[in-house]
Amino acid sequence: MTAQAKINWDGKVYPYIPSDPLKIDPSIKLHTSVADELDPISFEVIRYAMWNINVEQGNTLLKVSGSPIAAYGHDFNPCLLDESGDFVFFGPFLQYLSSASGSAVKWTLENRSENPGIRDGDIFLTNDPWIGAIHQADVCIFAPLFWKGELFCWFANTLHQWDLGGTTPGAFNPISKDVFWEAGCIPPIRIVEQGELRKDLEEEYIRRSRMPDLVALDLRAQITACNVARERMQQLIDKYGPKVVKGVMKKLQDNSETAFLKRLDTIPDGTWAEETWVELAREGDRHVYRNVLRLTKKGNKLIFDNEGTAPQIGSINCASVAWKGAIASMISAQMLFDQMFVIEGAYRHMEFEPTPGTLTCAKFPAGVVSAPPTVLLQTIGLAGMVISHMLYCSTDEVLQKEVQSCMGTLCFPIDAIAGIDQRGDPYASFLLDPVGGALGALSWRDGVNTGGWPWDLQSTMPNVEDNELFYPLLYLWRKEIPDSGGSGKFRGGNAAEIAYVLNDCDSMTHYTTGGHTIIPGPGLFGGSPTSRTRFSMVRDAAVRKATATTGNMPTALEEIDGEHLNVSPKTGGVVQQSDDVFSLAWTAASGYGDPLERDPQHVASDIENLYVSRDSGERQYGVCLDDNGAVDAKKTTALRAEIIHDRLAGSRDQALQTMPESPRDIQVSEGLVISASDDDQAWCCAKCRTRIEAVDNNYKSGCLKRVTEVQEVGLAPIDPGQFIDDLIEYREYFCPGCGLLLQGSFCRPDDVDFQNISLASTQVANSG
Amino acid sequence: MKYYCGLDTGGTFTDCAVIDHDGQITIAKRPSTPDDYSAGLFDALETCAVKIGISLDELMQSTEHLFLGTTVGTNALLQMKGAKTGLITTRGHKDSLAIMRSAGRSVGLPIEKLLHVSRHQKPDPLVARNLIHEVSERVDWKGAVFLDLNEAEAEAAVRSLLDQEIDAIAVSFLWSIVNPDHEQKLRSMIHRIAPEVFVSCSHELIAKRGEYERTVGTVINCFIGPVMKSYIEKIETRAASHGYDQPILVLQITGGVVPSSEVIQAPLYTIGSGPAAGVTGSSFLASEMKSPNVIITDMGGTSFEAGIIYGGEPLTASETIVNQYVFSMPRLDVQSIGSGGGSTLWVDEISGTLKVGPESAGADPGPACYGKGKVPTITDANLILGYLNPDNFLGGSMRLDKEKSIEAIKPLAQQMEMSIQELAAGAVRIAESRMAELMRQMTLQRGLDPRDFVIFSYGGAGPTHACEYARELGIEKIVVPLGSISAAWSAFGTLCADILHVYEKSDLLSQPFDIKHINEVFSGLETKGRQQLEDDGVAADRIEIQRFVEVKYRMQIHQLPVPVPPGKLDEQDLEGVFAKFEDIYEGFYGKGSAYRQAGVEIGLFKINAIGKLVKPAIPEQSPATEDPRTESREVFWPLLGEQVDTPIYTGLQLGPGHIVTGPAVVEYPETTIVVQPKATGTVDPGGNFIIELEATAQ
User: Fold this and answer.
1) Global pTM?
2) Interface pTM (ipTM) of the complex?
3) Positive or negative CA dihedral for B148, B150, B155, B157?
4) Which residues contact B196 (CB under 8 A, 6 or more apart)?
5) Quick one: which of A254, B241, B251, B266 has the fewest CB in 10 Å?
6) How far is A689 from chain B, CA to nearest CA, in Å?
7) In angstroms, what separates the C-alpha of B343 from chain A's closest C-alpha?
8) Chain A partners of B352 at a C-beta cutoff of 8 Å?
9) Domain-by-domain residue ranges, chain B?
10) Was domain B79-225 assigned CATH 3.40.50?
């Protein structure tokens, strides 16, 4: 990273990193004075009022905005920032947007304070991913509040816009080669000047869109939301005085920092990493790309890097603003849940060291518009995984309970649809059903079926009737998919699928963007991987005619005659004709821990509830039921023994050592302990105490390994060759002593075993 | 003498309010009798009869209308003690109820729980998966049949549910709101096969688009249907045996009443109706007092609830959330936060701040001063400050132990380095500021200024805190409605209700509008409304129809209700409706937020069909002749920063002409009114206790 010294992190070619301290024109005076003393009761009262001001900003946005994606997908978030753009509150909606608004405000302070200037009543707008947006569709509106000539604080809100131009309709672009194919980037402009919306700039802004009225309406929603919050904050300052209010802001940040540090204290120093694969950079591409996230905890710092991540390509890249937001969203969810998600305290101790020119730290003019449904969501999934790996090592039981497997809808299968609707009007939108997601399994209970995402607290699927009213289609089914959640000691939440035919129209064009159609997302500690995304079309199915004849509505693709095709996760226009069926399924959450460790009673109840099939109960969990659905203990024991026997079939000849339990042991995952004797420090099995590998090496080199081709993993075999040319395999790592499944991993045949964990030698030495 | 009797069955108490033709009010509060709620109801009625000096039979025989508010359905739902319910739905969509639009994992959670994702979980299913059956049939968005009802499959589904010994069947098909034919056919089939089974069809209960919320509503209706049927039939039988020969009028979540025969078919509308009676009573009183703008506040042991009357009309909402299940239906908008007397006090170690709630000590173990638990609560703080009289809690039926309160709060005070009184005062201030926040949100989010409102305060704990939450909002007048009657305010509230039927029709209309179609929709709804009111026995001259459309800009999702003038509409009327929409819109969201270029759309038609009931006027009280007697005790007043020997009034002895100068405490049998410093209390001729606040520097 030495080359970075020469890099200009100014938001032009390389993403913006604020100067420290910020270089602000001296004409701007920042309000920094805080009350000497803040009584704790007033703090609590003002804190609550301030939180509500920000929530009100969000609710206003939600009500005024036209976008279904705001109403259902909650693809927006309001925030309150202090005078220099540090966070006070970030709303309870979509979390990954957090990095963007802070960055936009700081950039504006550094680059707009002299010309055109920042004044009371001004409002700025940007959608530049190298400055303050996740991708171009996420437009950030932000407004300063002045108190007696001093810049007191900022309000910002980001809202996803359906279309801001570019070479394909919508907010994603499966054919883009670079940013010039996409919606244009707007560095911060002063769109409202002292209370007046500038007509010229508004027209310049909405002119680029295929849906200018919607964009104009949303612009008003965002401005209105800022104004509402600004007015309320003004009242709060009037009532309590600026020093007290500012004191509360600073104390909130300090409190979250204290809480965060207290939590870091319970965690040993170490490095945890996870990887996953993005499929197809754009339409016509046939390759896969690696996305790596590594977290190093060193004292009171968390350092994130992406070393090993593929070079930037196509339109799936994140500028680093998005990458940071992805990481921060899971830090909030897993470590700041009791601090009202005040992320600033954590930001003070997070360092980001991405390698530029990669998928997760793209240089201008890389294409970035398709990042959110692909690399960005994946990175959130990876962040949850590396944080979970780390929290497992914490001595704090509260944090251990936050350990969770990979979330569902790991890539969002964008099914963007366009055509003429049943009322004769043109439409262009995408179906929001996949916000249904699935929550990962926790270290103490199963995931939640169709339970959304962990970083968006309340996303809501549209009703089938909503979509059928808005678009010319008719759903055949929307159903949860049994067995889709990764199996494990605790099961990942199941996902769902939809299928629809056209109604009141002759054709519909689909633009897809997504991933994980071939390579599932990772499981945790031996839990099975996520299920796959699937876009499919059945040509000439003639469902209307068929159902009229049989009187039966089909509820699965297998029940439908016709030519079955899988649709690529990057298509720039596939046309569904009147007799065709289109279907999509999103990924379920992965599993936690070896499935053979699952309580057989839980498997039986999953089967009774139709979450898991009987067949899967046997194959995945080794659990046999009798005719009444009760666990057959004898058969289960025998079957589990048989599965273990198979796992151990490739066992090495050399004698295995065991290591005695010791108070100095550090348990680092469901199946792994670092154990130290006087002359040895090694990874050993938590279940049978078999010594696996010296602690300085990757524990995987001491494991029994089983390699499966990627197509054999998961619900139904698929043909990777339909979309990708690269070979990918699935490796499972077992304890050589007892056959406990420790971890699974997808990689290319030539890849060395991926290192998920290494504890700092000092940490191990201390334990030893 | 003619009487009107209002009853309110709650989980713990059953209240009764009787008003005679001259406006004299008698109330009674008796324990609820969960084994057979009707016993408690008639116990309360009889208590009132005795107070009036007549027999129960005499009372019942001279009763014009018997009104009933009930939480029996809500309680059955919350405790999941309902009928074994089966669901038949459109093939391919049986998982709708389990998917819960995904939001079911967190919807309705208080913010502290919302932020803790690893604890998100969907609630227990209302219908077990093996009791949900799918049937081939399909209607599209415009009502066209895509696939006829497969009657063989339908019959198999019904028989299979009967084999599974269900008590009730919910039928919910996609788009039944535009074409109910398949649901109706299936209901006939069920009636034919199993006439005894309780059946609900979704299109009859909820007219709004959205199959999830409609299915939830239908299933809940079935779940509580048999329970409510037997509850109401028992009351009817008893009432008849005492000589009451009119239909019982049951309060709904809309704030109106309907005859009990309709409630037996659609008990869903009673879910969440608990607070509605209070709003209805407040509406009535607000109009008597000529106060068009009122914020209604009700504080009990576990929660604080607020509602709004604006321009004389209670504000409404369209969604109800119970136990993370959502169903859509028009209702009075009453919002709630977990700030009640039982809200627990604790210290957040990291921030070193005092927190109140959201957990509640409930009734058991209850606040530390109840003597059963050790958790400090708001009630304990009130006792320590001297607001509450330990010997006069719940009408003296319970003694509070102040020592226990002190013991519970002491560790917190030490941790915060405050005196016990300071801590108690701080906790109360935090709780009161939260109440004020809720009211602030409810008004400001609608573009209303709270300073234009009067506060009504009732419920066991409300009047104790009203001065401060009013002051926090800049409101200068508080009304404790009808003084002592406020203790049975919900029972009184039912007496104030009119018959109300709400009819809605979802229909998305864009420009250019088909006026003929719009007139047809309204006329259809109105005919239905008038017919129903006639069936209810309402005379034509007592019928009132209110009409609304819900309007939005094209491509928006969120709709706003806009009143529509009566009669046949023309282009100009419609233009007036849209102009009104833009007014309301800009009122909500600020000048400049409207954007007509986007085009407007109508998403919903709605009428309120009202049958006006006669209500006796409340007579004026004559001025008090004697000075009230007072006692005194030490009370800590944060505003004065000290403990002061404070006059304590007995509320029942106060009358018009008396002036209570704060600081003072007024004790009624069931409630305590705290008159803060810089506040003055009086009793108006209507018997209401009025507090006027001096404007303060704040």
Assistant:
1) 0.94
2) 0.95
3) negative
4) none
5) B241
6) 31
7) 16
8) 40
9) 3-76+229-270, 79-225, 274-341+428-498+613-645+661-698, 343-427, 501-611
10) yes
